[in-house]
Design a protein that fits this description.
Blueprint: H1 2-7, H2 14-20, H3 25-36, H4 40-58, H5 63-69
């Protein structure tokens, strides 16, 4: 979770997290879901949405700028 929380704004995924903690994706996926209750991708998505909402409330940044800051490549998404 620490790695995801510190790198959510980058284009990361399950493979990157598994590589960082020196494990395979299947094991990470299984343990993460068991411990956290949701998968890595869903956790990352929720974190990005939370950060987007915070930036929309607390800044005057354009939506495209916010999307870039949280790692969403397509502002329309």
């Amino acid at each position: 979770m620490t790695y995801i929380n510190q790198n959510y704004y980058k284009p990361i995924g399950l493979e990157d997290v598994a590589r960082y903690i020196h494990t395979n994706t299947a094991y990470l996926s299984r343990v993460f879901k068991k411990e956290i209750g949701i998968g890595v991708s869903e956790y990352l998505g929720r974190l990005r949405v939370d950060q987007e909402q915070r930036l929309l409330r607390e800044t005057n940044l354009k939506i495209t700028q916010i999307a870039e800051q949280v790692g969403v490549a397509d502002a329309h998404y």
